[in-house]
Design a protein that fits this description.
Strand content: under 5%
Order of helices and strands: HHHHHHHHHHHHH
Distance between the termini: 44 Å
Number of domains: 1
Helix content: over 70%
Structural class: mainly alpha
Shape: globular
Number of strands: 0
Amino acid sequence: MNITPGKTLVLILLLVLLLAVGAVPLFADDAPAFRAGTSEPLRRPASAMSIPQALVLGIVEGVTEFLPVSSTGHLTVVQGLLGLWATPEEKDASDAYAICIQAGAILAVLLVSFGRIRAMVRGIFGQDRDGLRLFGNVVVAFIPAAVFGLLLEKTIKHYLYGVWPVAAAWLVGGLFILLVLVRVRRSGGAGLEGLTWRWALIIGCAQVLALWPGVSRSLVTIAAGMLLGLSVGAAVEFSFLLGLVTLGAATVYEALKLGSVIVRSFGWISPLLGLIAAAVSAFVAVRWMIEYLRTRSLAIFGWYRIAIAVAAGVLVLTGVI
């Protein structure tokens, strides 16, 4: 068996994750506490998110974040299935955690795209002209989603964080892939070196559509790049790099705003383990996607989106969620 550095990293992270899960009971504070001046036990409120639930959310986030299937849509449905919306505060904490858990996926892409990121850093310091140009394009593409995200944040959370809006977005996105993207010429196309700031701005405007949960940030940015004339590989790579900035900003913003609510509702052990699970699964998913799209089309993601949209609708109509 050929053990590559990537496989080794995955195995190590999986081992750390399993050990962490197994070690949690060892560090749990089981000693009874008592109310001051009495012998009456003081009961601590249990976390509303168990470790298995956190691991499920982490794996779902990691696998779906950079695939064109919408991680937010999947997390919305899974949160409903896991019963993490018991109270308004838990709903707020759960929605915020669905954003903050993206930090795990960000870590995975930092490893996969390290060469490009290093080039951009060198460019910022005047040592790589192509890297500086790529960094500028990423910033230009990031601006539209940042502006509209701040302006529409409350409206989006109020009206679109639900199973029906997600299912509709899944269905439309699946049909778009099958009817449009699979017909785009796969061979040839420009590399990242051919990406202009105007193309970057168009891709950034397309990313605004992904503020609707279920649309998929990866789908719209990859689609825009391909339709503009980028090769599949270049469109996917730019989507990854743009995701680092977009997801990073959203994660920091949400953590600063609602981090205390997350800890108050769920504690810190379960969310942390979920983040580790997201990093491991995202690393595997991103590596798989890169290899898969070298020789195959996006059709599988279109069929998947249609199937999951139907499944989500059935779950709602039958009262499961």
